[in-house]
Amino acid sequence: MNLKKGLVVATMFAIAAAFADGAASVESVTVPTKAPHNREATFWYHVPASYDAKRKKPYPVLVYFGGRNCKGKDEASGKLGWSDWADENGAFLVCPGFQDDNYWSPEAWSGQALFDALAALKRKYRIDDSKICYYGYSAGSQAANLFPAWRPGRCRAWVSHACGVFHEPKATMRAVPGLVTCGDADSARYVISRAFVEKSRRRGVDIIWKSFPNHPHDVPPDSLRLARAFLSHCISGKKGEEVFIGDDQDDMFYPAKSAEAEFVNPVDRVSLPSRTIAEAWGKPAFKEVEPPVPEEIVRIAVSGSEFVCRVPREYDTGSRVVVLFGGRGWPGAKTLKEFGFGPLADRERAFLISPSFSKGEYWNPETGTGKKLAKAVVEIRKRYGLKANPIVLYGYSAGGQCAALFAQSKELSVAAWGAHGCGVYPEGSIAAKVPALVTCGYGDEDRLRISRSFAMRYRGQGGALLFKPLLGGHELGDDAKAIAREWLMAVMAGGESWIWGEDDTMLVRERDDIETESRNPLYTRRLAELWQR
């Protein structure tokens, strides 16, 4: 055998050994049942990498139910990353391969089958099957809450994501930590999940609840982050950690002993037992005492005009560019400061660009300002390696005119635009019917009349426009900025609106029950709440 062939053979043996080592941590056990489609139920399991047979303390167990009729092997082998979590937390991952026969209901056969499988596993490994953790999504989420309710004394904690069937909340579940999550675009399951959480809380069962905007029947990465933080805390057994109180209405959390926490509505009150869980669940409503991180501000000159760019704390090639237009003649730096969209940009990993236009009718892109903006956007993309995603525009007063008119410019590719206190809009036929937001103060009567008329015309030509009159006059107030922030998050997330509001009644209704000219795309429940205020 020559050297080259010897190296190839040695490499093949090394690869085979590596696969053999990896496969050894995924095993299965089979138990007999009386269920017609599950005469032999198979349970796949992952042994944690740190397993030590000599350790006195038994290893915790997470039972992971995947989607309907999943085989279990993929789940145990790393699907959704739970095997990595199991290694990090020194836990056994057990994944049932149930098929039909209403397996999510444990009373008939599947509950005892699981306990039999764990008993068999316990004869081979040092596991703790007296306090089991459960996680599931879709049909698996039904099992993940029905099994604990069947035998609450043997449950350490449970998580159900995108669930359509829940147990009846009882006092026996008060000592069992639970987490329920769902995408708000998974409308039927969202309503069912929310109703279950509210009923549980009324009966003294404290459930952590979290919804994810614009997500249909899928598993958002942030839902996994929260579930893992929750289950890690539950199996750690840590006591005495700082507790926080979350507010369902705005996803903000407060120290449990703070005055603000006392005023959270009991219906919306979420107890978050650790900082890690709180940070995975939402955003702090208080300022941490730590050295401030300076913002990265970049200035670009294009043909005599300055563009000020705020760089997000973190970004990637898919990061969006959001262009902000301030009031008439505002320098870009003032616009960034007055709008206060920095935290939003960091959260969405978005670059904020604001021009310092001041001369002539600069709100008309045909005067050359459209080309200048296009060059500035290209320069930022080149400098930071960004893809050429369509940009988002938002402006106030004269800047609102910029947003409305620049959205129709052939120089730019625009995904969406918004304007507050705007008095000039595109005339005639609308070419780019991208999602739009128009807000205006009731006291700003002329602009309100113009804005309302344009909103109906834009919709009539096939555009999706959210229109909201606000208290106040021509100022850019907190209400306008709050609805703009929520709208920006929604349109940057993409996807169609599944919540619709009617102009005159301010009611949320079915899309086809609202006349086209009066139809508001509200995208998320939070945005719907702001719109109805």
Outline:
35% of the residues lie in helices and 24% in strands. It has helices spanning 3-24, 73-76, 82-89, 106-122, 139-150, 187-202, 221-236, 259-262, 275-281, 332-339, 342-348, 369-384, 398-406, 445-460, 478-493, 525-532, and strands at residues 26-32, 40-46, 59-65, 92-96, 127-137, 155-161, 178-183, 207-212, 244-247, 252-255, 269-272, 283-284, 296-302, 305-311, 321-325, 351-355, 391-396, 414-420, 436-441, 465-470, 500-502, 508-509, 519-521.
Which descriptors would you attach to this protein?
disordered N terminus, eight-stranded mixed sheet, alpha/beta, 533 residues, 16 helices
Q: Report the strand count.
A: 23
Number of H- or I-type helical stretches: 16
Spatial strand sequence of the major β-sheet: 1-2-4-3-5-6-7-8
Q: What is the rounded distance between the termini?
A: 81 Å
Task: State the share of residues found in helices, binned by percent.
Answer: 25-40%
Molecular shape: elongated
Query: Describe the biggest sheet?
Result: 8 strands, mixed
> Uncertain spans, ≥5 residues at pLDDT below 50?
1-24
Beta-strand proportion: 15-25%
Gyration radius, rounded: 28 Å
Q: Look at the structure and give the mean pLDDT.
A: 91
Structural class: alpha/beta
